[in-house]
Amino acid sequence: MTVTDGTSPLADALARLPRVVDLLAARAEEHDRDATFPYQGIEAVHEAGLLTLTVAQRYGGPGGTLADTVRVLAGLGRGDASVAVLAAFTLLQHAEQARADRWPTAAYRKLLTESRRGPALVNTLSMEPGGSGALPATVARREGDGWLLSGRKTYCTGAEALAWMAVRARTDEPVPRTGLFLVRGDSPGIEVDPVWDQLGLRASACHDVVLDGVAVPAEAVVGLAPYEGQAPADPIDLAWHDLALSAVYLGVARAAQDWLVRFLHQRTPANLTEPLATLPRYRSALGEIESSLIGAEELVAGLAAGVDRGEPTAAARSGAAQLLVNRAATAAVQQAVTLTGNPGLSRRHPLERYLRDVLSGRVHFPADEAVLDAVGRAALERGAGRGL
Predict the structure, then answer these.
(1) CATH classification for the domain delimited by 9-119, as one of 3.30.70.1150, 1.10.240.10, 1.10.287.180, 1.10.540.10
(2) Coiled-coil stretches, from where to where (predicted)?
(3) CATH 1.10.540.10 segments of the chain
(4) Across residues 142-171, what is the average pLDDT?
(5) Each residue of 290-345: pLDDT tens digit?
(6) Which of 228, 155, 205, 153 is nearest to 183 (CA)?
């Protein structure tokens, strides 16, 4: 978070982005093939100042906006989707703290101190084997002035390398309370169960985390309150999540398009004398991909800027936007595969990895039906309010 070229820390970090993207792309295939954690990639993101981009200026950070964040994540997604997703959840944590100061100051200062020493990944662990949304099965039992935390969390992105975990749990009191229990990733009683073996995002280490009597001091608990059912999510939190993660998959789609362009320039079938790039039907298909991605990028950038300006409509539209953007990104990669045929599905080329990664993006968002139902309900309510 220091200035190295006379510009602001924010501008300095953004200027390093292209080199980081190239570094990530050089190792992405290896980590995908072996499902190994991209420690060097995360280190590169950190050293560039991008992993702490959203730390508030009052905490000594660059104070990156949502517009800055989607720009960075689209770039990282172009290099390695797994690294981009890992960075996204840490950036979202810092951004939430910048907006609402939800972490206790002492705990957050510890996180920032660790972030100055090296990469300090952080994520919220909410999902459980039985699903989420109900009263958590993870239990905090009173022990002296603090708590002992026990349970299992699943789909914990970055599990093996998290510096801090914000674990959603309930107390064992007669009237249970729920909240976030802030736990250091190397605390006694934490075990990572390496169950993540998915089609895409293979280097993201979304393993299970098992907690067995993990000690949490009272001052490291956030928002502990009586459980009254699933509380509605903050619209701004949702907007940051939806647009940030959507940007990752736009980056993947752009990487796929980059590879497609090179393929069309280089590929000359035996029955032709010039590359495929000279054929009108391939140019037209590429134009369809380009137009679709331009529209999706403008949608994300425009809404992100609107959220930064505090426009409620921009935040309210983020759910519909992520659906449209991720459909566009997925369709773009699928069309690239269709245009290239067998080479596009070969493990010797990265296009099949881009396809697997972009398809895996759906795990970060609600089902399409749920999004469309919410959007439809909102439209009906607006119509009723206007007397239609």
Answers:
(1) 1.10.540.10
(2) none
(3) 9-119
(4) 96
(5) 999 999 999 999 999 999 999 999 999 999 999 999 999 999 999 999 999 899 99
(6) 153
Q: What is the C-alpha separation between 351 and 257, in angstroms, rounded?
A: 9
Residue type at position 4:
T
Start-end of CATH 1.20.140.10 domains in the chain? 235-385
Question: Distance between CA 351 and CA 298 in Å, rounded?
Answer: 24
Residue 277 has pLDDT above 50, yes or no: yes
In the chain, count of helices (H) and strands (E)?
11, 8
Phi/psi of residue 138, each to 5°?
-70, 130
pLDDT attached to residue 272: 85
Chain region(s) in the chain for CATH 2.40.110.10:
125-226
Sign of CA dihedral 279, 280, 286, 289: negative
> What radius of gyration, in Å, describes the C-alpha atoms of the chain?
22
Is residue 88 within 8 A of residue 124, CB to CB? The reply is no
**CATH no. for 235-385:** 1.20.140.10
pLDDT at 387: 62
**pLDDT tens digits, residue range 235-255?**
999 999 999 999 999 999 999
DSSP string, 46-74: HHTT-TTTTS-GGGTS----HHHHHHHHH
Exposure string (b/e) for 217-252, b if CB count within 10 Å is 16 or more?
A: eeebbeebeebeeeeeeeebbbbbbbbbbbbbbbbb
Tokens representing residue 356 in the block: 């697997």
Q: Is the dihedral of CA 193, 194, 197, 200 positive or negative?
A: positive
Which residues lie closer than 8 Å to 251 by C-beta, 6 or more apart? 73, 74, 75, 76, 77, 78, 79, 81, 84
Superfamily of 125-226 according to CATH: Butyryl-CoA Dehydrogenase, subunit A, domain 2 (2.40.110.10)
**Full-model pTM:** 0.94
CA proximity to 195, closest of 210, 183, 181, 212:
210
Q: Is 136 helix (H, G, I), strand (E, B) or coil?
A: coil
